[in-house]
Specification:
By secondary structure, the protein is mainly alpha-helical. Helix content is about 85%, strand content about 0%. The protein folds into two domains: about 40-140 and about 170-195, no CATH class; about 210-355, no CATH class.
Length: about 375
């Protein structure tokens, strides 16, 4: 090794040591410091995102001669009116279907047990040859401990989920208030950030913020519109085929569509299961599920979403799945919804510093071979 290579080796070793020290510091600080921060940040992050999404509308009103405060008040009041009207029109119907579900749940359970017994009756001889339970009673007897543990785990999960929902009711107050205050002072906050940036980095910061904010805002605005349309189309389709609880499943389907792959699959399975549980035939349930699958993959993925979102955000499928997993682990469902736009914005940010990541090497690779 010549003398010119020593500085590179020393630099690489120093970087590795610094990285290891940083990881150790993060692990040491996670539970006492970072974990509480991660629990507090989500509603304020949601408020910041909403403020960025609504800011162009406030700016548009400002160009018509209104002050910043008046524009914020009009935008906030408008969304409040829309929210209340939607609640008055939809919530009573949702409550009615939820009450029907609670009242009919014992009957659905009995139907499910009959379906299980029919399966055991049909495949009983085969199951006995494989030394497997051939009746529901045998299955309950053999796997009673496992079923009891699964039930206990399910109840614990449900209790934890309900506790989490109750603990986040404060978000209903925090998010709107924080959104209005951030929206009012958003231009001032952006100017402050630029003001405190060193002079030789200001132009890069402006380019970076414009690129990242553009892709993030375009994706989120488009996907919000797609989710609303998806919920409406799903509700209409499920109501047209006379599926019970069409409004509940259709209303949730738009939110689930924001989670790539997993959300659509969950909606299709939920609709098919509801069709079977409410007395539908296997063909009827398959038709309901197939209709939603065609709506998702043919209509929305190929037509509606590219039109409203502006095409693919450029996130590789593997990176998308990784971001979904990390978002779910850190922030649950909210993290999964925000994972893809965050990954797209991060990719754009990295591209500002390393433009070579956008180079297409596939042609040159084929030529080299």
């Amino acid at each position: 090794m010549n003398n010119a290579q020593y500085p590179r080796v020393i630099t690489a070793a120093a970087l590795l040591v610094a990285l290891a020290a940083a990881l150790y510091l993060v692990l040491e600080l996670y539970r006492p410091v970072l974990a509480p921060i991660l629990e507090v940040v989500p509603p304020f992050a949601a408020a910041l995102v909403l403020a960025f999404l609504l800011d162009p509308l406030v700016d548009w009103l400002g160009k018509r001669g209104l002050s910043r405060g008046a524009g914020v008040a009009i935008v906030g009041l408008g969304f409040l009116v829309v929210f209340v009207l939607a609640g008055l029109l939809i919530v009573p119907r949702l409550a009615e279907q939820a009450g029907q579900l609670a009242a009919n749940l014992p009957d659905y359970t009995r139907r499910a047990m009959r379906a299980v017994n029919e399966v055991f009756t049909r495949f009983g001889p085969t199951l006995r040859r494989l030394h497997l339970p051939a009746t529901a009673a045998e299955m309950t007897s053999r796997f009673s401990a496992q079923m009891e543990q699964a039930a206990s785990s399910s109840l614990s999960f449900l209790a934890g989920a309900l506790t989490a929902v109750v603990s986040r009711l404060l978000w209903i107050i925090i998010i709107p208030l924080a959104t209005l205050w951030l929206l009012k002072d958003l231009d001032y906050i952006k100017a402050k950030v630029v003001h405190f940036t060193p002079q030789n980095h200001k132009q890069r910061l402006l380019r970076l913020s414009a690129a990242v904010g553009g892709v993030f805002a375009r994706y989120v605005r488009g996907m919000v519109a797609v989710a609303v349309i998806y919920s409406a189309v799903s509700s209409i389709w499920l109501s047209a085929v006379r599926l019970d609880y069409a409004l509940i499943i259709g209303g949730l389907s738009g939110l689930l569509y924001l989670v790539p792959y997993i959300g659509t699959l969950t909606t299709v399975l939920a609709a098919g299961t509801a069709a079977l549980a409410t007395g539908g035939t296997l063909g009827y349930a398959g038709g309901v599920a197939a209709g939603l699958a065609i709506q998702s993959f043919a209509l929305f993925d190929l037509v509606v979403t590219p039109k409203l979102v502006g095409g693919n955000v450029g996130v590789h499928p593997v990176l998308m799945l990784l971001s979904l997993a990390l978002g779910a682990r850190l922030f649950g469902v909210i993290g999964m919804v925000g994972a893809v736009p965050f990954a797209a914005a991060l990719q754009v940010a990295v591209g500002q510093f390393y433009p070579a990541i956008y180079d297409d090497l596939r042609g040159s690779g084929r030529a080299a071979r």
